[in-house]
Amino acid sequence: MSEEDALFLAGLELEGAVTSSDKVRGLIRQARQRAQAPATWDAALAAAHDIAAPALKALRAAELASDRHSTVALALTTAVEEMLAVLLAAPAELAGGDPERLARHEARLVDAAARLTEQMLRWGVTTNAPAYDPTIVSRRVAALGELTRLITAAADRPTAA
Question: pLDDT tens, 118-143?
Fold first, then answer.
């Protein structure tokens, strides 16, 4: 093992792994999990959580160190985790190309995106979102206002016969 790899392994933090052997076994387990599509929704959600955990841990540590909190950052991280779980579950769910499963997969993606969009719009109602930068959401939502007006106008137009 190269010195660089040994230093990496020594500094690596894996849950439940203390020794280098524990860490190597943990890395093999993680590689196996990534190579094999989760067979169930619960397994996909657990895998997504494992992938998102370092980012969430860093976010919470930074918030503690800075004595600041963002409901926006936490909720967006959770939303990404859910969408990732849908994607990780896709290989097992979509095997065989069953039209009903395709539709269910699509519905899960759309539902997750719609919940995220609804949350963003709720935060955008006020100029002070629960974020590190209280105006970040309202600025972005305001920029989407024109698109929303165009969509509404197109929907209100009578269709040609």
Answer: 999 999 888 899 999 999 999 888 88
The three state secondary structure string of 130-157 is CCCCCCHHHHHHHHHHHHHHHHHHHHHC
Give Cβ neighbours of residue 49 (< 8 Å, ≥ 6 apart): 81, 85
56, HSE (Cβ side, Cα atoms, 13 Å): 15
83-121: string of b/e by CB count within 10 Å (b at 16+)? bbbbebbbebbeeeeeeeeeeebeebeeebeeebeebbe
What is d(CA 57, CA 49) in angstroms, rounded to the nearest whole number?
11
Distance linking the first and last C-alpha atoms of the chain: 72
CA distance 35 to 43: 13
Q: What is the pLDDT of residues 6-58, one digit of tens each?
A: 888 888 888 788 888 998 998 888 888 778 888 888 999 998 998 899 899 99
Residues 60-70: tens digit of each pLDDT: 999 999 999 99
